[in-house]
């Protein structure tokens, strides 16, 4: 998972980042709330770990914006030296999912983070099989079939496909995709993602007759749409 960290103290920020990377998560560390807010405007993450106080923009203020834009989809955990009851209560009142005091115990911290992620993304944690329409993913063997027919994918192609199908309907930014599939942050413009997406459409026949559309999102990244969900959403808007 890709997790953004806001923490003023460099030592505590490093401790949090190490604890998360040891669990296989990709991290985006920030010391400044405004810098993180700008990054979130152009990028997507799976979770936020915020400092209560923050620099220039507090974690509480940032969370209000995140909840207004993304609702409750992204889990948010506060990690702060301020462990007063007042701050904890305020954090939950503005939409926090959990609150821990610094310094963190790495093993306990990882367990709390993974519990929040498991609740937010159950398909990516609890299932060894992902079955959506004609697509069947075996997470253990890292294999996929379409209408029961095996499709041979490279490791990169499988990671890309499983990322999209585990996040149906969700916009994934290009740097999010790159971090989760290639294992490192995207620092320069590249057509690598586009060429892999194009090839994946063909290999998995991600087309209307199979009930899905993999579409580019302007100035962001890509989104896998289930056409049945799209039709339901259109009908609901028309009825309103």
Automatic annotation (TrEMBL):
GO CC terms, sorted: cytosol; protein-DNA complex
Gene Ontology terms for molecular function: phosphorelay response regulator activity; transcription cis-regulatory region binding
OmpR/PhoB-type domain span: 127-226
InterPro entries: CheY-like_superfamily (IPR011006), OmpR/PhoB-type_DNA-bd (IPR001867), Sig_transdc_resp-reg_receiver (IPR001789), WalR-like (IPR039420), WH-like_DNA-bd_sf (IPR036388)
Residue positions, PTM 4-aspartylphosphate: 51
SMART domains (alphabetical): REC (SM00448), Trans_reg_C (SM00862)
PROSITE patterns xrefs: OMPR_PHOB (PS51755), RESPONSE_REGULATORY (PS50110)
Taxonomic superkingdom: Bacteria
PANTHER family referenced in this protein's UniProt entry, alphabetically: PHOSPHATE REGULON TRANSCRIPTIONAL REGULATORY PROTEIN PHOB, REGULATOR OF RPOS
Name by which UniProt lists this protein: Sensory transduction protein regX3
Protein species of origin: Paraburkholderia caffeinitolerans
């Amino acid at each position: 998972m890709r997790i953004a960290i806001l923490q003023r103290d460099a030592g505590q920020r490093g401790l949090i980042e190490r604890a998360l990377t040891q669990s296989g998560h990709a991290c985006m560390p920030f010391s400044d709330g405004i810098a993180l807010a700008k990054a979130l405007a152009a990028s997507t993450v799976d979770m936020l770990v915020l400092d209560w106080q923050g620099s220039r923009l507090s974690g509480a203020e940032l969370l209000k914006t995140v909840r207004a834009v993304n609702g409750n989809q992204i889990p948010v955990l506060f990690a702060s030296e301020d462990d007063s009851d007042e701050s904890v209560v305020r954090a939950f009142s503005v939409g926090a999912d959990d609150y821990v005091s610094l310094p963190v115990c790495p093993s306990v911290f990882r367990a709390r983070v993974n519990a929040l992620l498991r609740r937010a993304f159950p398909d990516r944690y609890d299932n060894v099989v992902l079955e959506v329409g004609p697509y069947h993913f075996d997470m253990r063997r890292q294999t996929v079939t379409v209408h029961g027919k095996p499709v041979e994918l490279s490791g990169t192609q499988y990671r890309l496909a499983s990322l999209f199908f585990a996040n149906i309907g969700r916009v994934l930014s290009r740097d999010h995709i790159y971090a989760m599939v290639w294992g490192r942050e995207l620092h320069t413009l590249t057509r690598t993602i586009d060429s892999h997406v194009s090839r994946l459409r063909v290999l998995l026949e991600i087309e209307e007759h199979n009930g899905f559309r993999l579409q580019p999102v302007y100035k962001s990244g890509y989104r896998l749409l289930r056409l049945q969900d799209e039709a339901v959403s259109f009908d609901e808007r028309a009825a309103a």
